[in-house]
Every structure is written in C-alpha cells, then in structure tokens.
Specification:
The protein is an alpha+beta fold and 174 residues long. Helices cover 29% and strands 27% of the residues. The chain has an eight-stranded mixed beta sheet. β3 and β4 form a beta hairpin. α1 packs antiparallel against α2.
C-alpha cells in the first residue's frame, strides 16, 4: 500500500480533518501514540479504533480510498485529536456513500461534530456524490441533532436506528 503524501486536510473554522495515514491508523488501532501525536484525553475511543481497523483493511484490499477514507478530527487551536470522521468506503454505483463520526466526551456539545460532518458533506459533493447517508441509535438525541444541524434529513426510524440522508446535486450543478 502506498500513501499519497499529497492528500490535503480539510480545514474548517475550528477544526482540521486530517487524512489518516496507514501508519497513523496503525497507532490509533493499537492505542499507541508516538511522541509527536497530540491526542486529547480519551482518544482514541473504541469507535476510533474500529474505524482505524476498517480503514487499514480497506487500504490492504484495494489501496488508498481517498478522499473516501478516515479523517482524524483535530482542534485548530491546539492540534489535539478529539475524534474521527469519515466515509464507510467509496460511493456505490448509484453515487451513495455512508458517513460516521465521533468525539471524545470532553469535546462534545460544542458543535464540533456538526462542523466536521458538514465538511465531509462538502467533500462528498465536490466528488460528485449524490446521496450521503448516516445512522445512529434511535435514542441518541445528540447524534440526531448533529445530522440535522449538518443538513441531513431523517428518512426512517425503525425504533432501533434513525436513518438520515442528504441528497445533493453534484458540485458542477448537474
């Protein structure tokens, strides 16, 4: 697997979505930071570890998934990793892709998750993705608010999971 050093981070007003390298993903999966890693307390969470493992499996199976990979969410103010956000693989034949995100508890309730999700939605639109989906446990009010705040709409609630989607035109307006 070859890492493309030219993958740019996604920068928002308060965050940097840093594309994880395979080496960084291995450290997250093993929960073993190197001296230069700036991890906030509680990072990586179990979901971050799972996401890093899925990212590594995708890289091993088909190469780099960029821009549809896993991003480490870092605060611009101090560079600390506070969670991850990313795509669950490339878009399918119909132009649909799924997203996920999560933050350490200390970083929640500040709008960071919605800011990161809006940035992922922009990446998807720029890549011509027609529909972005996400889901959360039906009783996870915070995550439901995050998806709504980012512009996604509830499309189904089966009592266990709430399913959200954002159907969007391609960046070229087509």
């Amino acid at each position: 697997m070859v890492w493309d050093e030219h993958v740019d981070p996604v920068v928002t007003p308060r965050l940097v979505l840093h594309p994880l390298t395979p080496a960084e993903a291995e450290r997250v999966a093993a929960r073993t930071p190197e001296p230069g890693d700036r991890w906030a307390p509680g990072y990586p969470r179990e979901d971050d570890v799972d996401g890093a493992r899925l990212f590594l499996a995708a890289c091993a199976a088909s190469g780099e998934p960029w821009p549809f990979g896993t991003y480490e969410i870092r605060r611009r103010e101090d560079g600390r990793a506070i969670g991850t956000a990313g795509f669950h693989g490339p878009p399918d034949a119909g132009g649909e892709v799924a997203v996920g995100y999560g933050l350490v508890p200390q970083a929640r309730r500040r709008g960071y998750a919605a800011e990161a999700l809006r940035a992922l939605l922009d990446v998807a639109r720029e890549q011509g993705v027609r529909c972005v989906t996400g889901d959360t446990e039906a009783d996870n009010t915070a995550s439901r608010r995050t998806m709504s705040a980012a512009g996604m709409q509830l499309v189904r609630d089966d009592g266990r999971l709430a399913h959200y989607a954002l159907r969007q035109p391609a960046a070229d307006g087509a």
